[in-house]
Amino acid sequence: MDSNSVSRRKFIGVAGGVAAGAAIAGPASAATKKPAKKKKPAKKKKPAAKPAAVNKPGTGVVNYWNHFTGAAERAGFESVTKGFKAASPNIDLKVETIQNPDWMTKYITSVQAKSGPDALMVTAGRLADMARIGGLVDITTRAKAWGDFTDTPAAVNDALALNGSQWGLPVFAFIDWGYYRSDFFEAKGIKKAPTTLEEFRLAAIELTDPSKKVYGFGMRGGSGGGGFITKLMHAFNGPIYDRKTRKSTLELDAAVDALRFWVRLGTKDKCIPPTAAGDGYAQQMGAFKAGGTAMILHHTGSYVEITTPLKAEIEVKTFEFPKGPKAGMASVSPLGNGLFKGTSNPDAGFEWISYWGSKKAQVDFLQSTGYWPTATGAANDPFIKNTAGFRTAESVLKTGWTAYTFPGVENWEINTILPNVQKALNETITPEQAARNIWTELRDITDTK
Which residues contact 352 (CB under 8 A, 6 or more apart)? Predict the structure, then answer.
Protein backbone atom coordinates (compact mmCIF):
# COMPACT_ATOMS: atom_id res chain seq x y z
CA MET A 1 0.00 0.00 0.00
CA ASP A 2 1.50 3.35 -0.96
CA SER A 3 1.57 6.47 1.20
CA ASN A 4 -1.04 8.26 -0.89
CA SER A 5 -3.58 5.51 -0.17
CA VAL A 6 -2.90 5.68 3.55
CA SER A 7 -3.26 9.46 3.60
CA ARG A 8 -6.50 9.28 1.68
CA ARG A 9 -7.96 6.66 4.03
CA LYS A 10 -7.10 8.75 7.07
CA PHE A 11 -8.64 11.78 5.45
CA ILE A 12 -11.91 9.94 4.68
CA GLY A 13 -12.12 8.58 8.22
CA VAL A 14 -11.69 12.00 9.83
CA ALA A 15 -14.12 13.69 7.44
CA GLY A 16 -16.74 10.99 7.97
CA GLY A 17 -16.51 11.29 11.73
CA VAL A 18 -17.02 15.05 11.63
CA ALA A 19 -20.09 14.70 9.39
CA ALA A 20 -21.63 12.01 11.59
CA GLY A 21 -21.21 14.08 14.72
CA ALA A 22 -22.98 17.05 13.16
CA ALA A 23 -25.98 14.94 12.11
CA ILE A 24 -26.53 13.44 15.55
CA ALA A 25 -26.34 16.74 17.49
CA GLY A 26 -28.62 18.74 15.21
CA PRO A 27 -28.78 22.54 15.21
CA ALA A 28 -28.42 24.29 18.62
CA SER A 29 -29.94 27.67 19.68
CA ALA A 30 -27.79 30.37 21.21
CA ALA A 31 -29.74 29.95 24.56
CA THR A 32 -28.93 26.26 24.95
CA LYS A 33 -25.44 26.30 23.48
CA LYS A 34 -22.74 25.82 26.12
CA PRO A 35 -19.45 27.52 25.63
CA ALA A 36 -17.07 25.14 24.02
CA LYS A 37 -14.16 23.93 26.13
CA LYS A 38 -10.82 24.91 24.88
CA LYS A 39 -8.90 21.90 23.62
CA LYS A 40 -5.37 21.41 24.79
CA PRO A 41 -2.95 21.47 21.94
CA ALA A 42 -1.93 18.00 20.98
CA LYS A 43 1.54 16.98 22.09
CA LYS A 44 3.98 16.74 19.27
CA LYS A 45 5.22 13.24 18.73
CA LYS A 46 8.93 12.79 19.00
CA PRO A 47 10.49 11.54 15.79
CA ALA A 48 11.29 7.85 15.94
CA ALA A 49 14.88 7.18 16.80
CA LYS A 50 16.99 6.04 13.87
CA PRO A 51 18.08 2.42 14.14
CA ALA A 52 21.70 2.03 15.11
CA ALA A 53 23.99 1.60 12.13
CA VAL A 54 24.95 -2.02 11.56
CA ASN A 55 28.28 -1.18 9.97
CA LYS A 56 29.93 1.59 11.95
CA PRO A 57 33.08 3.40 10.78
CA GLY A 58 36.11 1.50 11.96
CA THR A 59 39.28 2.64 13.68
CA GLY A 60 42.42 1.06 15.04
CA VAL A 61 44.38 -2.01 13.99
CA VAL A 62 43.03 -4.79 11.77
CA ASN A 63 45.06 -7.98 11.53
CA TYR A 64 44.45 -9.78 8.24
CA TRP A 65 45.54 -13.20 6.93
CA ASN A 66 45.95 -14.00 3.25
CA HIS A 67 47.71 -16.66 1.19
CA PHE A 68 49.07 -14.59 -1.70
CA THR A 69 52.64 -15.59 -2.50
CA GLY A 70 52.95 -15.01 -6.26
CA ALA A 71 54.64 -11.81 -7.49
CA ALA A 72 51.61 -10.67 -9.50
CA GLU A 73 49.29 -11.41 -6.58
CA ARG A 74 51.47 -9.40 -4.24
CA ALA A 75 51.55 -6.46 -6.67
CA GLY A 76 47.79 -6.54 -7.06
CA PHE A 77 47.26 -6.84 -3.34
CA GLU A 78 49.50 -3.84 -2.73
CA SER A 79 47.35 -1.73 -5.06
CA VAL A 80 44.27 -2.75 -3.07
CA THR A 81 45.83 -1.95 0.30
CA LYS A 82 46.99 1.46 -0.94
CA GLY A 83 43.44 2.23 -2.02
CA PHE A 84 42.12 1.12 1.35
CA LYS A 85 44.60 3.29 3.24
CA ALA A 86 43.38 6.32 1.30
CA ALA A 87 39.71 5.42 1.83
CA SER A 88 40.04 4.49 5.53
CA PRO A 89 42.95 6.46 7.03
CA ASN A 90 41.82 5.69 10.59
CA ILE A 91 42.43 1.97 10.16
CA ASP A 92 45.89 0.41 10.37
CA LEU A 93 45.90 -2.80 8.30
CA LYS A 94 48.45 -5.38 9.42
CA VAL A 95 48.93 -8.20 6.92
CA GLU A 96 50.26 -11.70 7.51
CA THR A 97 50.86 -14.01 4.56
CA ILE A 98 50.50 -17.75 5.14
CA GLN A 99 51.63 -20.41 2.67
CA ASN A 100 48.58 -21.99 1.09
CA PRO A 101 49.46 -25.60 2.08
CA ASP A 102 49.80 -24.48 5.72
CA TRP A 103 46.56 -22.48 5.79
CA MET A 104 44.16 -24.95 7.41
CA THR A 105 46.70 -26.08 10.01
CA LYS A 106 47.29 -22.47 11.06
CA TYR A 107 43.55 -21.79 11.07
CA ILE A 108 42.69 -24.82 13.21
CA THR A 109 45.44 -24.00 15.70
CA SER A 110 44.18 -20.42 16.02
CA VAL A 111 40.58 -21.54 16.55
CA GLN A 112 41.67 -23.91 19.29
CA ALA A 113 43.76 -21.19 20.94
CA LYS A 114 40.91 -18.67 20.51
CA SER A 115 43.46 -16.25 19.14
CA GLY A 116 43.61 -15.22 15.52
CA PRO A 117 43.29 -12.34 13.08
CA ASP A 118 40.41 -9.91 12.72
CA ALA A 119 39.78 -10.79 9.07
CA LEU A 120 40.93 -13.57 6.79
CA MET A 121 40.53 -15.13 3.37
CA VAL A 122 37.76 -17.66 2.76
CA THR A 123 37.68 -19.83 -0.37
CA ALA A 124 34.55 -21.64 -1.52
CA GLY A 125 36.36 -24.98 -1.31
CA ARG A 126 37.34 -24.41 2.33
CA LEU A 127 34.16 -22.73 3.48
CA ALA A 128 32.34 -25.79 4.82
CA ASP A 129 35.33 -26.87 6.90
CA MET A 130 36.16 -23.37 8.14
CA ALA A 131 32.57 -22.78 9.24
CA ARG A 132 32.27 -26.24 10.84
CA ILE A 133 35.50 -25.78 12.80
CA GLY A 134 34.00 -22.63 14.25
CA GLY A 135 36.42 -19.82 13.52
CA LEU A 136 34.19 -17.66 11.30
CA VAL A 137 31.68 -14.95 12.18
CA ASP A 138 28.20 -15.07 10.64
CA ILE A 139 28.22 -11.76 8.74
CA THR A 140 24.73 -12.04 7.23
CA THR A 141 23.35 -8.90 8.93
CA ARG A 142 26.43 -6.84 8.11
CA ALA A 143 26.51 -8.07 4.51
CA LYS A 144 22.87 -7.23 3.83
CA ALA A 145 23.29 -3.76 5.35
CA TRP A 146 26.28 -3.09 3.11
CA GLY A 147 25.15 -1.09 0.10
CA ASP A 148 27.26 -2.95 -2.47
CA PHE A 149 26.16 -6.45 -1.44
CA THR A 150 23.49 -6.61 -4.14
CA ASP A 151 26.03 -5.49 -6.75
CA THR A 152 27.39 -9.03 -6.68
CA PRO A 153 25.36 -11.75 -8.44
CA ALA A 154 23.34 -13.78 -5.94
CA ALA A 155 24.93 -17.04 -7.12
CA VAL A 156 28.39 -15.69 -6.27
CA ASN A 157 27.33 -14.53 -2.80
CA ASP A 158 25.64 -17.89 -2.26
CA ALA A 159 28.91 -19.69 -2.97
CA LEU A 160 30.26 -18.14 0.25
CA ALA A 161 27.10 -18.90 2.23
CA LEU A 162 25.93 -22.01 4.04
CA ASN A 163 22.47 -22.84 5.40
CA GLY A 164 21.24 -19.29 4.81
CA SER A 165 24.17 -17.61 6.56
CA GLN A 166 26.79 -15.46 4.84
CA TRP A 167 30.36 -16.21 5.91
CA GLY A 168 32.35 -14.21 3.38
CA LEU A 169 32.22 -11.33 0.90
CA PRO A 170 33.50 -12.27 -2.58
CA VAL A 171 36.42 -10.36 -4.07
CA PHE A 172 37.15 -12.37 -7.21
CA ALA A 173 36.51 -15.73 -8.83
CA PHE A 174 38.86 -18.48 -9.91
CA ILE A 175 37.77 -19.31 -13.46
CA ASP A 176 39.44 -22.42 -14.85
CA TRP A 177 41.19 -22.14 -18.18
CA GLY A 178 44.33 -23.36 -19.88
CA TYR A 179 47.27 -21.73 -21.65
CA TYR A 180 48.86 -23.07 -24.81
CA ARG A 181 51.93 -22.05 -26.75
CA SER A 182 50.29 -20.94 -29.98
CA ASP A 183 53.72 -20.65 -31.62
CA PHE A 184 54.43 -24.31 -30.81
CA PHE A 185 51.04 -25.31 -32.19
CA GLU A 186 51.70 -23.41 -35.41
CA ALA A 187 55.11 -25.05 -35.84
CA LYS A 188 53.48 -28.48 -35.57
CA GLY A 189 50.61 -27.57 -37.88
CA ILE A 190 47.98 -27.94 -35.13
CA LYS A 191 45.21 -25.58 -36.17
CA LYS A 192 43.29 -25.11 -32.93
CA ALA A 193 43.32 -25.71 -29.21
CA PRO A 194 41.91 -29.05 -28.04
CA THR A 195 38.29 -29.12 -26.89
CA THR A 196 38.02 -32.75 -25.67
CA LEU A 197 40.28 -34.80 -23.43
CA GLU A 198 41.20 -37.11 -26.31
CA GLU A 199 42.15 -34.14 -28.50
CA PHE A 200 44.14 -32.81 -25.55
CA ARG A 201 46.04 -36.10 -25.18
CA LEU A 202 46.85 -36.35 -28.89
CA ALA A 203 48.04 -32.73 -29.03
CA ALA A 204 50.24 -33.28 -25.96
CA ILE A 205 51.85 -36.32 -27.60
CA GLU A 206 52.41 -34.43 -30.87
CA LEU A 207 53.98 -31.46 -29.10
CA THR A 208 56.40 -33.56 -27.04
CA ASP A 209 60.06 -33.66 -28.05
CA PRO A 210 62.21 -35.14 -25.27
CA SER A 211 65.41 -34.44 -27.24
CA LYS A 212 64.65 -30.73 -26.82
CA LYS A 213 63.25 -31.24 -23.30
CA VAL A 214 59.83 -30.05 -24.43
CA TYR A 215 56.69 -31.82 -23.20
CA GLY A 216 53.17 -31.37 -24.44
CA PHE A 217 51.51 -30.96 -21.03
CA GLY A 218 52.90 -29.42 -17.88
CA MET A 219 51.06 -31.54 -15.32
CA ARG A 220 50.90 -30.25 -11.75
CA GLY A 221 51.33 -33.51 -9.88
CA GLY A 222 52.87 -32.03 -6.75
CA SER A 223 51.47 -29.56 -4.22
CA GLY A 224 48.09 -28.21 -5.32
CA GLY A 225 47.62 -30.92 -7.92
CA GLY A 226 44.83 -32.84 -6.19
CA GLY A 227 42.13 -30.41 -7.25
CA PHE A 228 42.71 -31.18 -10.93
CA ILE A 229 41.71 -34.79 -10.31
CA THR A 230 38.42 -33.67 -8.76
CA LYS A 231 37.72 -31.75 -11.98
CA LEU A 232 38.83 -34.70 -14.10
CA MET A 233 36.52 -37.14 -12.27
CA HIS A 234 33.67 -34.65 -12.72
CA ALA A 235 34.38 -34.73 -16.46
CA PHE A 236 34.20 -38.54 -16.55
CA ASN A 237 31.31 -38.93 -14.09
CA GLY A 238 29.25 -35.73 -14.08
CA PRO A 239 28.70 -34.33 -10.56
CA ILE A 240 30.56 -36.41 -7.99
CA TYR A 241 28.64 -34.99 -5.01
CA ASP A 242 24.96 -34.23 -4.47
CA ARG A 243 24.60 -30.92 -2.63
CA LYS A 244 21.05 -31.75 -1.49
CA THR A 245 21.62 -35.23 -0.10
CA ARG A 246 25.25 -34.48 0.81
CA LYS A 247 26.29 -37.87 -0.55
CA SER A 248 28.87 -39.00 -3.06
CA THR A 249 27.60 -39.70 -6.57
CA LEU A 250 30.98 -40.78 -7.97
CA GLU A 251 30.86 -44.14 -9.76
CA LEU A 252 33.92 -46.36 -9.30
CA ASP A 253 34.17 -47.07 -13.05
CA ALA A 254 34.25 -43.34 -13.80
CA ALA A 255 36.98 -42.79 -11.21
CA VAL A 256 39.01 -45.61 -12.76
CA ASP A 257 38.64 -44.19 -16.27
CA ALA A 258 39.69 -40.75 -15.07
CA LEU A 259 42.79 -42.02 -13.26
CA ARG A 260 43.81 -44.22 -16.17
CA PHE A 261 43.64 -41.25 -18.52
CA TRP A 262 45.67 -38.96 -16.26
CA VAL A 263 48.34 -41.41 -15.17
CA ARG A 264 48.94 -42.83 -18.63
CA LEU A 265 49.88 -39.37 -19.89
CA GLY A 266 53.06 -40.04 -17.95
CA THR A 267 53.52 -43.81 -17.84
CA LYS A 268 52.46 -44.60 -21.41
CA ASP A 269 52.26 -41.45 -23.55
CA LYS A 270 55.36 -39.84 -21.99
CA CYS A 271 54.01 -36.36 -22.78
CA ILE A 272 54.53 -34.81 -19.33
CA PRO A 273 57.84 -33.85 -17.68
CA PRO A 274 59.57 -36.68 -15.77
CA THR A 275 59.34 -34.46 -12.68
CA ALA A 276 55.56 -34.00 -12.95
CA ALA A 277 54.71 -36.08 -9.85
CA GLY A 278 56.50 -33.51 -7.70
CA ASP A 279 55.85 -30.32 -9.67
CA GLY A 280 53.91 -27.62 -7.84
CA TYR A 281 52.85 -24.16 -8.95
CA ALA A 282 56.36 -22.70 -9.31
CA GLN A 283 57.65 -25.63 -11.37
CA GLN A 284 54.54 -25.76 -13.55
CA MET A 285 54.61 -22.03 -14.33
CA GLY A 286 58.39 -21.82 -14.66
CA ALA A 287 58.60 -24.63 -17.21
CA PHE A 288 55.78 -23.20 -19.31
CA LYS A 289 57.22 -19.67 -19.40
CA ALA A 290 60.64 -21.07 -20.29
CA GLY A 291 59.26 -23.10 -23.19
CA GLY A 292 59.60 -26.51 -21.53
CA THR A 293 55.89 -27.34 -21.86
CA ALA A 294 53.28 -26.53 -24.50
CA MET A 295 50.06 -26.59 -22.44
CA ILE A 296 49.14 -26.09 -18.81
CA LEU A 297 45.86 -25.97 -16.89
CA HIS A 298 45.34 -23.20 -14.34
CA HIS A 299 42.93 -20.25 -13.94
CA THR A 300 42.53 -16.58 -14.83
CA GLY A 301 44.61 -15.38 -11.88
CA SER A 302 47.89 -16.15 -13.64
CA TYR A 303 47.14 -14.19 -16.83
CA VAL A 304 49.45 -11.25 -16.14
CA GLU A 305 52.22 -13.56 -14.90
CA ILE A 306 52.06 -15.61 -18.11
CA THR A 307 51.67 -12.76 -20.58
CA THR A 308 54.48 -10.65 -19.14
CA PRO A 309 57.30 -12.83 -20.54
CA LEU A 310 55.21 -14.27 -23.41
CA LYS A 311 53.40 -12.27 -26.08
CA ALA A 312 49.64 -12.67 -25.75
CA GLU A 313 47.90 -13.99 -28.87
CA ILE A 314 51.28 -14.52 -30.60
CA GLU A 315 53.22 -16.88 -28.34
CA VAL A 316 50.48 -17.82 -25.89
CA LYS A 317 46.70 -18.06 -25.95
CA THR A 318 44.02 -19.21 -23.53
CA PHE A 319 41.65 -22.15 -24.01
CA GLU A 320 38.85 -23.84 -22.13
CA PHE A 321 39.59 -26.94 -20.09
CA PRO A 322 38.92 -29.97 -22.31
CA LYS A 323 35.59 -31.72 -21.94
CA GLY A 324 35.20 -35.30 -20.83
CA PRO A 325 32.69 -38.04 -21.70
CA LYS A 326 30.08 -36.74 -19.24
CA ALA A 327 30.87 -33.08 -18.53
CA GLY A 328 33.40 -30.29 -18.77
CA MET A 329 36.36 -30.05 -16.42
CA ALA A 330 36.16 -26.29 -15.83
CA SER A 331 34.71 -24.91 -12.61
CA VAL A 332 34.15 -21.43 -11.19
CA SER A 333 35.05 -20.78 -7.57
CA PRO A 334 34.81 -17.45 -5.70
CA LEU A 335 37.34 -16.31 -3.13
CA GLY A 336 36.32 -13.88 -0.43
CA ASN A 337 37.09 -12.54 3.01
CA GLY A 338 35.41 -13.10 6.35
CA LEU A 339 35.77 -12.13 10.01
CA PHE A 340 37.50 -14.33 12.56
CA LYS A 341 35.43 -15.34 15.56
CA GLY A 342 36.58 -13.43 18.60
CA THR A 343 37.89 -10.48 16.64
CA SER A 344 38.40 -7.46 18.87
CA ASN A 345 37.73 -5.04 16.03
CA PRO A 346 34.77 -6.27 13.91
CA ASP A 347 33.76 -2.82 12.63
CA ALA A 348 37.17 -2.07 11.16
CA GLY A 349 37.48 -5.67 9.98
CA PHE A 350 34.24 -5.45 8.04
CA GLU A 351 35.22 -2.05 6.63
CA TRP A 352 38.33 -3.71 5.17
CA ILE A 353 36.63 -6.77 3.66
CA SER A 354 33.79 -4.68 2.23
CA TYR A 355 36.28 -2.27 0.66
CA TRP A 356 37.92 -5.14 -1.20
CA GLY A 357 34.48 -6.33 -2.26
CA SER A 358 33.90 -3.00 -4.03
CA LYS A 359 34.22 -2.49 -7.77
CA LYS A 360 37.20 -0.14 -7.52
CA ALA A 361 39.33 -2.51 -5.45
CA GLN A 362 38.46 -5.49 -7.64
CA VAL A 363 39.45 -3.62 -10.80
CA ASP A 364 42.75 -2.57 -9.20
CA PHE A 365 43.50 -6.21 -8.40
CA LEU A 366 42.37 -7.43 -11.81
CA GLN A 367 44.79 -5.18 -13.67
CA SER A 368 47.77 -6.57 -11.78
CA THR A 369 46.79 -10.23 -11.88
CA GLY A 370 43.95 -11.19 -14.18
CA TYR A 371 41.76 -12.47 -11.33
CA TRP A 372 38.16 -12.14 -12.44
CA PRO A 373 36.12 -9.57 -10.47
CA THR A 374 32.74 -10.52 -9.01
CA ALA A 375 31.25 -7.05 -8.52
CA THR A 376 28.62 -6.22 -11.15
CA GLY A 377 30.06 -3.79 -13.68
CA ALA A 378 33.70 -4.55 -12.83
CA ALA A 379 33.81 -7.04 -15.68
CA ASN A 380 33.16 -4.13 -18.04
CA ASP A 381 36.57 -2.72 -17.25
CA PRO A 382 38.55 -1.91 -20.44
CA PHE A 383 41.31 -4.32 -19.38
CA ILE A 384 38.84 -7.20 -19.78
CA LYS A 385 37.06 -5.84 -22.81
CA ASN A 386 40.31 -5.19 -24.69
CA THR A 387 41.98 -8.50 -23.80
CA ALA A 388 41.20 -11.25 -26.30
CA GLY A 389 42.20 -14.02 -23.90
CA PHE A 390 39.35 -13.12 -21.57
CA ARG A 391 36.77 -14.26 -24.10
CA THR A 392 37.65 -17.75 -22.83
CA ALA A 393 36.74 -16.75 -19.26
CA GLU A 394 33.43 -15.29 -20.43
CA SER A 395 32.63 -18.58 -22.13
CA VAL A 396 33.54 -20.63 -19.04
CA LEU A 397 31.30 -18.42 -16.90
CA LYS A 398 28.37 -19.62 -19.00
CA THR A 399 29.23 -23.32 -18.99
CA GLY A 400 31.40 -23.98 -15.92
CA TRP A 401 30.08 -25.61 -12.77
CA THR A 402 30.42 -24.24 -9.23
CA ALA A 403 33.38 -25.77 -7.44
CA TYR A 404 32.62 -28.30 -4.72
CA THR A 405 32.44 -27.21 -1.11
CA PHE A 406 31.62 -29.89 1.43
CA PRO A 407 33.24 -30.91 4.72
CA GLY A 408 36.55 -32.61 4.09
CA VAL A 409 36.85 -31.87 0.36
CA GLU A 410 40.20 -30.07 0.56
CA ASN A 411 41.66 -32.60 2.97
CA TRP A 412 40.50 -35.38 0.62
CA GLU A 413 42.23 -33.68 -2.33
CA ILE A 414 45.47 -33.12 -0.41
CA ASN A 415 45.78 -36.27 1.69
CA THR A 416 43.99 -38.90 -0.40
CA ILE A 417 43.88 -37.87 -4.06
CA LEU A 418 47.36 -36.36 -4.35
CA PRO A 419 49.46 -39.15 -2.78
CA ASN A 420 47.55 -41.86 -4.62
CA VAL A 421 48.00 -40.16 -7.99
CA GLN A 422 51.69 -39.58 -7.25
CA LYS A 423 52.15 -43.27 -6.43
CA ALA A 424 50.40 -44.21 -9.66
CA LEU A 425 52.56 -41.82 -11.69
CA ASN A 426 55.63 -43.37 -10.06
CA GLU A 427 54.15 -46.84 -10.78
CA THR A 428 54.19 -48.08 -7.21
CA ILE A 429 50.42 -48.68 -7.43
CA THR A 430 48.13 -49.01 -10.44
CA PRO A 431 45.67 -46.33 -11.59
CA GLU A 432 42.89 -48.74 -10.66
CA GLN A 433 44.17 -49.04 -7.09
CA ALA A 434 44.53 -45.28 -6.81
CA ALA A 435 40.99 -44.78 -8.11
CA ARG A 436 39.50 -47.24 -5.61
CA ASN A 437 41.31 -45.60 -2.70
CA ILE A 438 40.06 -42.16 -3.78
CA TRP A 439 36.51 -43.41 -4.40
CA THR A 440 36.35 -45.24 -1.04
CA GLU A 441 37.55 -42.23 0.95
CA LEU A 442 35.01 -39.93 -0.71
CA ARG A 443 32.21 -42.30 0.28
CA ASP A 444 33.56 -42.40 3.83
CA ILE A 445 33.76 -38.63 4.35
CA THR A 446 30.29 -38.13 2.86
CA ASP A 447 28.83 -41.08 4.80
CA THR A 448 27.61 -42.67 1.57
CA LYS A 449 26.47 -46.25 1.99
Answer: 58, 62, 64, 84, 88, 91, 93, 119, 337
Task: Note the CATH number of domain 60-174+332-402.
Answer: 3.40.190.10
Question: Contact 132/126 with Cβ under 8 angstroms?
Answer: no
Global pTM?
0.81
Contact between residue 302 and residue 178 where contact means Cβ atoms under 8 Å apart: no
Spell out the domain ranges in the chain. Answer: 60-174+332-402, 175-330+404-445
The residues with which 335 forms a beta bridge, in sequence order, are 123, 172
Q: How confident is the model at residue 285 (pLDDT cuts 50, 70, 90)?
A: very high
Note the helical H segments in 26-169.
Answer: 71-87, 103-113, 124-133, 140-145, 154-158
User: Exposed/middle/buried for 239, CB within 10 Å: 0-12, 13-18, 19+?
Assistant: middle
Q: What is the pLDDT at residue 89?
A: 96
Measured distance CA(262)–CA(217) in Å, rounded? 11
Tally of CA atoms within 13 A in the half-sphere of 168 that contains its CB: 29
User: Of residues 52 and 235, which shows the higher confidence score?
Assistant: 235
CA atoms within 13 A of residue 263's CA, in its CB half-sphere: 26
- The superfamily in CATH containing domain 175-330+404-445 is Periplasmic binding protein-like II (3.40.190.10)
User: Three-state SS string across 70-89, please?
Assistant: CHHHHHHHHHHHHHHHHHCC
pLDDT digits (tens, 9 = 90+) for 338-361: 999 989 999 999 999 999 999 999
Ramachandran category for residue 99: left, alpha or beta (phi over 0 → left; psi -120 to 50 → alpha): beta
